[in-house]
Design a protein that fits this description.
The chain has 184 residues and is mainly alpha-helical. The chain is built from four helices and two strands.
């Protein structure tokens, strides 16, 4: 349904189109009656002429001319209504497009208010702060991994020292902690 507002008055375009079609239908019905009347009057005029009644034939021809005049006037009205109907139907998509463009423009305006330079700067600062925190967390994990690595290397050094001590005491055939650990 298409509605317009003109001078603070709502205009129901669908109703107008329906009224135009209704009026065209009424005109066509009247024209059909007039066409039949013109045919009948033409036959009547010919019958009067055939009977040599010139006065009656002229009277009927005048009536036929009046009917033809009304028919032509109605044809002009029908043409005008059809032109109006076509013009309105052609404008409906334009109105829809205009409204869509207007809504899009309003949305862009609202987006423009939301997307200020200060807003972008704030987002950038928040992002940089977030990346800094993430870097600190990553550094902490790296530090923990390196600490565990240092402890494991220290343990290996201790195992080597124990193996050397065992060799010095003559216990070379006894598996070392390192070997036991590997078998585990």
């Amino acid at each position: 349904m298409v509605s317009l507002f003109a001078k603070n008055q709502k205009i129901d375009v669908d109703k107008i189109l329906m009224n135009i079609k209704q009026q065209i239908g009424i005109i066509e019905a009247r024209q059909k009656l007039l066409a039949q009347a013109m045919v009948n009057l033409g036959r009547e005029a010919l019958a009067h002429k055939k009977n040599h009644n010139k006065q009656a034939a002229l009277f009927v021809v005048r009536k036929r001319i009046m009917k033809k005049s009304e028919f032509n006037r109605l044809e002009g009205m029908k043409t005008l209504l059809s032109q109006q109907e076509s013009s309105i139907e052609e404008k409906i998509p334009e109105i829809d497009i205009f409204r869509t463009l207007k809504e899009a423009n309003t949305a862009l305006g609202a987006m423009g208010k939301e997307t200020t330079l200060e807003g972008f700067e704030e987002l950038q600062a928040n992002f940089e702060e977030s990346m800094e925190k993430r870097g600190e967390i990553n550094d902490l994990f790296v530090e923990m991994a390196e600490k565990d690595m240092d402890e494991m290397m220290q343990e290996i050094d201790n195992i080597e020292k124990e193996d050397e001590e065992l060799l010095k005491r003559g216990m070379a055939n006894v598996p070392s902690k390192c070997m036991l650990w590997m078998l585990w």
